[in-house]
Amino acid sequence: MPENKIYAVGLGPGSKDLMAPKALEILRSCNVIAGYKYYLEQFPDLFAGKTIISSGMTGEIQRCREALEAARSGKRVAVISSGDAGIYGMAGLLMELAEKDFPEIEVETVPGITAASAVGALLGAPLMNDFATISLSDLMTPEKVIIKRLEGVAEADLVCVLYNPASKKRRTLIRTAVDIYRRAVGEETVAGIVTDACRPDQQVMTCTLKDFPFDEIGMKTLVVLGNSRTVLRNGKMYTLRGYDDKYGI
Amino acid sequence: MPENKIYAVGLGPGSKDLMAPKALEILRSCNVIAGYKYYLEQFPDLFAGKTIISSGMTGEIQRCREALEAARSGKRVAVISSGDAGIYGMAGLLMELAEKDFPEIEVETVPGITAASAVGALLGAPLMNDFATISLSDLMTPEKVIIKRLEGVAEADLVCVLYNPASKKRRTLIRTAVDIYRRAVGEETVAGIVTDACRPDQQVMTCTLKDFPFDEIGMKTLVVLGNSRTVLRNGKMYTLRGYDDKYGI
After folding, report:
1. Distance between CA B127 and CA B116 in Å, rounded?
2. Residue B200, SS3?
């Protein structure tokens, strides 16, 4: 039976007014905070005076181990992720490490607003009906698995949110993803592109797949590929659920 | 150019400590609130003294029209949804109605923590990698489209969150969904079942697809079907991202 807890906390998309009160309360109550530098810098007041376990983007295993060690020594520890800690965040890695080497520590996930929700709201309401989220990072998922997933969701006519669509070096998989959607759903399909969502440099764009602006896609971009029911009207991108077909609104 | 605004506000999964401060602030500032009765009753303090436009589950078109009329008359109006207003919520319907009959009113989506995030956190971290959300409600999406989507995501080995998995009358599609996953991913695949998430009667269960408890599934249940990388260890359901394969943690 675990004796200690460690918290995997989702900060939400970036602005404090979208962070859940529960996350804020737990962060305030912790004396040790572990996280990627960039996320820590977003909320300097919140983390002032606390012990910080920080490192760059790829240091997450070491960071989570150090956080678990701190929890073992009796400290109250939170490991932060942007968005939701349970969606491409640190919750799973903490559970995996705890199960192997820290069985006395329970990992509690504190959910947050995931980037897909924030970006959906900025664009309009593209996630009104069934959708998938797929990360294009091939760091831990083989490219052929990612492509198979893209083909599956495109064939199923699901709206698709692409996390980590490209980095400076990795620029081809986003082209593959858009091509798959062009073929399966059509060139006129609406797409949304949001960079730095809910942050000072926020950029929101919409386009069709025919005119997809590949050069605008970076590390901090999220892409939403629409489906056959996604429209762009009055400046809003949204997906029709079928009210008009059924009730003739 | 729209002159007025109406807010589509996500309340989060049900407890006040998971509602975004922005949602709370907007609800406080509005004098008219429209929503499904059950959601209004969850936060009685918040809505006291306001004009309420309420109706049952299927009255949403009428409710949204009345809300838009109120906004047109100069009132400050919020239409509430549980979870995220942009994920199976009211944001899209409001945009559709505004585009047709209320072009002077802009719909702003205020995001919230969607049920998938809340349920994922209660189970562990099943949404750590790519996933899909599919609603099994056939009220507006034809059953054959839903089945095609289920087959697509199962073949692509995506974790799948089922919204509206069953009602009193609609009991067969959940069997079809589980059967599709049994065939594509295997009988030993882990599943999570959460009813009344973040509410007083909350129930959290895990099982394998072989032993899926169909009788436990109701209107207020969310089901998470794992993929080939989803495990149940130390009482937590989570999906491996591949750290162990790549780094041998």
Report:
1. 8
2. coil
> What does the alpha-carbon distance between residue A237 and residue B139 come to, in Å, rounded to a whole number?
23
Question: What residues of A are in contact with residue B111 (Cβ under 8 Å)?
Answer: 13, 18, 113, 117-118, 120-121
ipTM: 0.95
Structure tokens that stand for A105 in this block: 């520590």
Q: Do A93 and B120 touch (CB under 8 A)?
A: no
Dihedral in degrees, nearest 10, Cα atoms A36, A42, A45, A51? 0
Residues of B in contact with A241 (CB under 8 A): 92-93, 140-141
Cross-chain residue pair B110–A89, CB shorter than 8 Å: no
Q: If you measure CA to CA, which chain B residue comes closest to A99?
A: B234
Asked if A105 contacts A6 with a C-beta cutoff of 8 angstroms, the reply is yes
Q: What is the Cα–Cα distance from A126 to B80, expressed in whole angstroms?
A: 18
| pLDDT tens-digit readout, A125-139 | 999 999 999 999 998
**CB pair distance less than 8 Å for A20 and B20:** yes
d(CA B39, CA B36): 6
Residues 6+ apart with CB under 8 A from B58: none
Tell me, what's the pLDDT at B2?
A: 57
Q: Please name the residue of chain B whose CA is at the shortest distance from the CA of residue A13.
A: B111
Residue of B95, B131, B140 lying closest to A132 (CB–CB): B131
Cβ–Cβ below 8 Å for B152 and A149: no
A1 pLDDT higher than 50: no
Q: Do B219 and B166 touch, CB atoms closer than 8 A? A: yes
